[in-house]
Structure to design on (186 residues):
């Protein structure tokens, strides 16, 4: 079992990792998005992100023709996990 | 024809306005998201937004039980349009 198995949902066709995070208010959402943007600048991993006032969904797609999530993508997911663990966020369904 | 009819696609069930904007690079995407976040703070309108490295999709949902897009939501859409007109962005399909 890898480090992100408990926090990210792996889906197939197309292969991707997904995680949803909920926040108490818009300020929390924005702070989170800013931190994740910095991760992207640091790593070159640019996930698809959708968000509303108090939630963020992150989807990390395997890059075709890759048939697995790349190590740098897993590392990105782990950085998001560490950020979530350090803040008052809740994981949604 | 209202002011946003040429730039936003109105969809039904649920009623919503949608607009996609494409960017040359991630910096453009981030600048745009920051500006739109400020619009939300100014207006209290919090659309659903999805984005990747070089695109942003904005969806403004009518708030149930409303059966039409509210005036402040249309005003928000018009501010986005003005922002797009002032930057080097392209509208995607």
């Amino acid at each position: 079992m890898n480090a992100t198995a408990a926090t990210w949902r792996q889906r197939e066709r197309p292969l991707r990792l997904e995680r949803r995070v909920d926040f108490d208010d818009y300020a929390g959402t924005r702070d989170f998005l800013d931190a994740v943007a910095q991760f992207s600048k640091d790593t070159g991993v640019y996930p698809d992100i959708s968000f509303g006032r108090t939630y963020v969904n992150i989807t990390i797609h395997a890059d075709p023709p890759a048939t697995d999530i790349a190590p740098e993508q897993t590392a990105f997911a782990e950085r998001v996990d560490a950020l979530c663990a350090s803040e008052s966020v809740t994981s949604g369904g």
Notes: Strands of chain B lie at 9-11, 16-22, 48-51, 55-61, 90-91.
